[in-house]
Amino acid sequence: xxxxxxxxxxxxxGHGCCPGCxxxxxxxxxxxxxxxxxxxxxxxxCFGTISGTFPTSPIKLAAYNTPFASAGAAASGVRAALxxxxxxxxxxxxxxxxxxxxxIGIQAVSxxxxxxxxxxxxxxxxxxxxxxxxxxxxxxxxxxxTTTTPPANLKSQPKKDIxxxxxAHRVPYAATASxxxxxxxxxxxxxxxxxxxxxxxxxxxxxxxxxxxxxxLTIRLARLAVQTKVFPLYEVEDGERYILxxxxxxxxxxxxxxxxxxxxxxxxxxxxxxxxxxDREWQRLMHRMExxxx
Amino acid sequence: xxxxxxxxxxxFLPPMSFSYExxxxxxTGTWRYLTPAYLNKLAPxxxxxxxxxxxxxxxxxxxxxxYLGAWEKITQENPLPxxxxxxxxxxxxxxxxxxxxxxxxxxxxxxxxxGDQAFQSGKRPPPPQEKKREKVAIIGSGPAGLSCAYHxxxxxxxxxxxxxxxxxxxxxxxxxxxxxxPKDILDQEIDNILSLGVEAKTGVRVGKxxxxxxxxxxxxxxxxxxxxxxxxxxxxxEDAKGVMSGLEFLQRVNSGQPVDPGQRVAIIGxxxxxxxAARSALRLGAKPLIIYRRTREEMPAWEEEVSETxxxxxxxxxxxxxxxxxxxxxxxKGVECIKNLLGPIxxxxxxxxxxxxxxxxxxxVDAVISAIGETPDFSFLPEELRQYTGSLPVDETxxxxxxxxxxxxxxxxxxxxxxxxxxxxxxxAMAVDATLRGKNAxxxxxxxxxxxxxxxSMARYKKGGTDGIAPEVIPFxxxxxxxxxxxxxxxxxxxxxxxxxxxxxxxxLGLSPDSAxxxxxxxxxxxxxxxxxxxxxxxxxxxISARPDKQGYDIxxxxxxxxxxCVEECPRGAxxxxxxx
Amino acid sequence: MRKLMTGNSAVSHGVVLSRAQVISAYPITPQTTIVExxxxxxxxxRLPAKFIRVESEHSAMACVAAAAATGARVFTxxxxxxxxxxxxxxxxxxxxxxxxxxxxxxxxxxAPWSIWCDQGDSLSQRDTGWxxxxxxxxQEALDTVIQAYRIAEEILLPVMxxxxxxxxxxxxxxxxxxxxxAVDRFLPPFHPRYKLTPDDPHTFNIxxxxxxxxxxxxxxxxxxxxxxxxxxRVDREFKSQFGRGYGLMEKFRCTDAEVVLLTMGTAAGTAxxxxxxYRRQGKKVGLCRLRLFRPFPAEALIKTLSGMKKVAVLxxxxxxxxxxxxxxxxxxxxxRAPRKPKVFEFIAGLGGKDITPExxxxxxxxxxxxxxxxxxxxxxxxEA
Lengths: 294, 581, 384
Known about the structure:
The structure holds three protein chains of three kinds.
Chain A: H1 23-34, E1 38-43, H2 46-50, E2 56-57, E3 62-66, H3 71-84, E4 91-97, H4 98-103, H5 106-115, E5 119-125, H6 162-168, E6 173-178, H7 182-194, E7 198-204, H8 208-211, H9 218-227, E8 234-237, E9 241-244, H10 253-257, H11 270-288, E10 289-291
Helix pairs in contact in A: 1-7, 3-5
Chain B: E1 21-22, E2 35-38, E3 40-42, H1 44-48, H2 55-63, H3 67-75, H4 81-87, H5 91-95, H6 107-120, E4 135-139, H7 143-154, E5 158-163, H8 171-174, H9 183-194, E6 199-202, E7 220-223, E8 229-230, E9 243-245, H10 246-255, E10 264-268, H11 272-283, E11 287-291, H12 303-311, E12 315-317, E13 320-328, E14 331-345, E15 351-355, E16 361-364, E17 367-370, E18 374-375, H13 383-386, E19 405-407, H14 418-436, H15 441-447, E20 449-450, E21 455-456, H16 458-463, E22 469-473, E23 493-494, H17 497-500, E24 508-510, H18 513-522, H19 534-538, E25 544-546, E26 553-555, H20 565-569, E27 575-578
Parallel strand pairs in B: 3-22, 4-5, 4-7, 5-6, 7-19, 9-17, 10-11, 10-17, 11-12
Antiparallel strand pairs in B: 2-27, 8-18, 13-14, 14-15, 14-16, 20-21, 23-24, 25-26
Chain C: E1 2-6, H1 7-17, E2 22-24, H2 32-43, E3 50-52, H3 57-69, E4 74-79, H4 80-85, H5 87-95, E5 101-106, H6 120-123, E6 131-134, H7 138-155, E7 159-164, E8 172-176, H8 180-186, E9 203-204, H9 213-242, E10 249-252, E11 259-263, H10 267-280, E12 285-290, E13 292-294, H11 298-305, E14 310-315, H12 325-334, E15 342-347, H13 357-369, E16 378-379
Parallel strand pairs in C: 2-3, 2-4, 4-5, 5-7, 6-7, 11-12, 11-14, 14-15, 15-16
Antiparallel strand pairs in C: 1-8, 6-13, 10-12
Helix pairs in contact in C: 1-2, 1-7, 3-5, 7-9
């Protein structure tokens, strides 16, 4: 299925996302891939905020907003209700940001994954609590500025490896996705739709306002993240079969960091350290790979 | 009268908050301070083509396997794609943006492929749509004359071609050997031109068989007689038997007349004529020796010609100039040369060769072909124009000092290449048309311009310049190459070396169909939207829609926030930013 | 069918009879046996519902809320800390106008840790927009669960059914289990007008801005007000169909009483004995067991209590810095009464401390023998 061939839209124009935000591209693509028999369960975050102000909404699908920590649980409830009412064709899609997945929401996500509840959970990661004003989350990368990690005290912990956490739950399907690779993105959403059980899609979502870059560079950064191995594209089946989708040639991580103002406070030696970390994480990931792209 | 009570209508309030309208009422276009807009721009290949071809458009069609469509695009501007695809020096490839990424697209080989495909499909140019009453005389049927004849007949004018030689073609037939440009291919494309109703008078020399005064019956004249006088060597022994000019040698070879190149023949010169002469001599059984006064780097011949000459094991002697032709009993015995070193850069931009005192040496040869340059003959022109030497001066429209007389090709001061000749023929056609139709020729030509290098487009001329393509040329830096993979350029197939020099069969066999399609798809389609859909896929505000007629996309400015992702992600730079609402 | 069962088990039976479709709960003492029994009932098919074993009470409420929004009849149960954990969700559910029914086993909220009976947990959630019905017997618990669905689905507000921890949840009594067909006649299937479905897509719980939020809340307030009459009517219907009714409050020997003891839950059972004792002594006393706490039945209470000289309120809870919650609400309601009885406030039984006949006697003595209340509530059972 090709990004060009999907023409049904499930979002209206006129939504309140910041110019150049990746999240509406993530959601637009995901919705296109899933079709109209989908119910979205949305938790607090950027998507929740733009999901509408009474009486309008930019979302054309049936959708339900639930408080911050509860995306994982609410989606399970929707699925159970649909099943008991005899509807086994509607897809349930939980949508949360990194806050609602890595931090405040991790408990409910973990529980849903452990129960193997049958729905797709998509996390759009903009690497901080962007909706409330760019505060740091456990998804914020090492060395990044946020409003709670000011220059004198930049984020000093590495990013949580959420895919590995999900894989540890032995979920049937987990995958990373980048909107700079739309065909791969759509393939993964559709694969998730065809799989039974808990599916986790981890979507990279560059944020011009929070990462401090010029709004036209969103897709470029989503691509560079993959090409510099900062955001590898891979899938995990049943928690153990790792499949690599893209093997980049090896662009230096500085190409990815340079356009972003949030990395403008790195101290001497930090860049090298980041490159080392990226390389080491890549090696670790490669050890787990069962299959590489042909 | 009691005033009616105004009751404010309450919006429908369901028990719980849910949406019952879309968000379209929020016109987020008001947020914008940068406005993206589709703006097709000129591809560098288009600007660089002296024949004014819409190379970019032809590549798009070829990439879609629509070779006949590509042929139509090319022949709107240039009637000789099969010819040019074999002999052009392809400045388009030198300007090709893909060159900065991996290797230039094989535009030249594709032009040939498209031309050959069209021929195989029996495609011919469309007949002229109208008949105008005016008649134009064209002197010379080389590429300039043929091009002018083609365009003027397409525009509906009556055209009479005067050609001194027995057959049409000029330098295409009599200068370029068959192993580079087979005669039947030339005949076929000339025939296409004639099929538009051009009257050709071969074996008729203006100034001898026809007086200039008789041309006054025509409404305009285009002089495209070329440059057929060889420059003399200016060394003793030059008049000996066994010494001839490269032009004369090639004319004989290309007319099928008998000519003896000797056993060991020295070719003096470093241009295409010298290469053609050397390789022709080789095929006639001689052992050629090319003597050039500068080094290989300064040779004016096309690089491909030089390397093919080298592949045929023809010897080069660089940094040497002849000083005397040694004769014995009136026959050539050898050529005495002197070695040069290169001095500082001279008037023509190249380093001056300075002879080294006492470095003379003699090469034993029994024939000498001099190919050090050509100059036009003006003797057939009216008196006002006979005074000139070197080249005939013309104004920016190609008009000479004589009313109604235009000139182009090698006879005027422009690079001596087939492509430039074709371009000047087209320019003359436009100037003649503008003049005869009472329009301003300067304005007309300006509207036809493709960029800043002087190339003109007939399609643009006909539309008065309005074709929606901005004049700016798209540089490599404006492209987004993330959407392209490095692809090795496919090589042309060539006759195996062992079979090349035994005769005059065509050496270059062109691209295979698979290679041709591959190459056409390598074209970036710089500057012009080719419906790749990126802008549509990536717009976060769904403000871009595809037009149902598949002619492009529209931006809905009610919602466009001006993030400019579309501008950035257009692989070919077809979207521009305006800093205003 | 009549069977001996605990309060918790009665609740489970009520849930089965109500044909709940999605259940999600997290175990917490003393609610656990509800969850366990319902799991069994789902497993063996007595209850064809989806049972989602969530990892926390917040998730339990989020889960059933979303399920209710999708159009399923749902149930959950919790107690004290669990109730507090889902506090945010309680607001969300009532704001979304979802007919969730929850049973809360009243238990003290720490610190210090206590697993025993205390009504402070549910009473401290009185502002969350849930109806609250306090039960005194296992039978009443079963019946009230069924009534709760009727009420909730009609006014689109969630209902909390309260059972005293251990005193009601874990004690057994004979319970009449109604016939399923009879319950089906009383409680029709759940067909919400608005629900999550791709056939009629809307985005639920979108933001209400500053101009409209107040209107949504006002609508909910109107619904709450309507709930008083509705709860009374549903109970009357239930009574006429099943022969058992409880009203918004249970009045015991109040007709000619001058002094009434007002309390909620199982303490009323003990109090009844003591009231009888005082009546035998010729004292004109009565008992009012408040069943509907939210919406607070101010009109009904004014009607009942205006003529009384004194009201003794026994709170099994305390709002630190203010006093017993039932007492406060009662005083606020009586403020509008044309004739106000004097209100004597008592706090006892916190953290499961037994409310004995002696406790009630102390309350009656203090009330009967003092012209005016002290000012501050009197705490009974404080040692040291």
